[in-house]
User: What shape does this take?
Amino acid sequence: FVSPTIPPANPTFAGMPSRRALVSCGGLSRALLVAAALPVLAVAGGGSAVLHLDTASGKGDGLKKNFPALFAEWTESESRVEGAALVRPSDDPYGCLPQKRCDDCAIFVLQGNCSFSQKARRAEEAGAQLLIVVSSSGGPVGMMASTGKRVFGAGTPQISALSISKNSGRQILMALDRGDLIVAGCWFHEKAYWDLASEGLVGLLAVSLVMLGAWHSVEDLRRPESRASFNEEVFAVEESSGFQFVFFGSVMLTVLFFLMKYLIYVLLFLFATGAVSTTTMLLEPILAGWFPALRAQKACSLPKRLANLFGVAQDHSWADAISECIGGALSISFLLFRNNDKFGWFLQDAIAIMLLLTIQRTLRLPNLKTGTLLLVCSFFFDIFWVFLSPMIFKKSVMIEVATGGGTGQSVPMVLKIPSFGDEIGGNFKILGLGDIAIPGLLISLLLRHDLTRGSTLCCGYFTAGVIGYAVGLLATFISLYLMKHGQPALLFLVPGTLLPTCIIALCKGELGQLWRASYGPEPAPEGYTNLPDEGQEQI
Assistant: This one.
């Protein structure tokens, strides 16, 4: 998104031979491969539940955690189970065969090989009070009782039963393999209205980052004295970038879909190491502005071969060194604590925010034509890989990659906000970075055009673009709750930003001018004349 994110591909932070490390132009496609999905899925069934597991005794660090679950259709929402010893059948992991007697236990089985009703009957015959079924893919699945009557000629099962996600099941299996003795409990989970506040915070953060990134991208207009050095760090997005994005993005998503269990750690490493270059680019000017002596004093020199390998300058000032140390500390902290539900998300968001600001700073749309091609290509890219890819791959490739592909690791190319009032823990509202970065490039172009023309905020394109982006996000969240399925946010964000821009330009008679403008960092082609009082800025 970003990645489309997710879906991802990973950003490569190769520097140019300028003073600070830069994100390469090709890094846009790689950085935007995975994030455009909203992998917050809902499923139908007997109602949301909380599965609580606690280690009674045994080896290892133990397991004490709440997991999101889904009650079977026949399980009453008032059902509550406590203190049931967790048992995994050794002879039949699917729970389809008769089980050994285990009074008041909780039987842990895998989905498949027989109906849910048959698994429930076998657990009842063994004297269990709870059946836990691990989904074979993705999140918890709805368990129906209708087949039970046909198989056994009896009524629906009476045992409390629930399903959990494949990732949750993997964590529990690891604890059981360590020899932990685990007791299980479950109860009905009623979602709080605070959950909607988490969604709103994600939207507010996305809109704020689009605005901040646009403001950051016009530093050369706000500070004309820095124009020459600023433009050295800027790359113009080419007209062919949209088609390249679709091709290389599709290749990367397909590779990630099949090899995610191997490549997820490469993605995590590259995302973390990107914190060093993005922190240096954003923090070094601030430190140098506050303490000019830090930029003037040399801190260290890298060997020429090493500097060329990483694409950075040989000589590093104290401002560079301090920024790189802070970025390195953030990178290491993310790798160590990325799975910590309490603050791991904050470390990920900090790196993601710097990546987004860097993308909008270093990549520039020269005109509306290039922006339209990029957004329209991303629009159809998102739709295909979220909605149409299941016809070929049996699963939504975008959502599968964005949720980690069953690896137990979360893809880092997303913004994450914890769900408020969540008694389960570990539930997050997620928005792909591509859903911010791609429309953000258009918003940056609109702000540049307004400043160049001297337009006021209320009468310019920038405000309309931001409002359209916010409306598109709102439509995405509404669709998410109505459809109960991960949504391609660009399906709403592209029309929300592009249509108002084109309509306003058409009404002002500026559509052709904005369509063919030349706001790139390179010199304008022959035939363009300077705008009044704008020096080198041309359209």
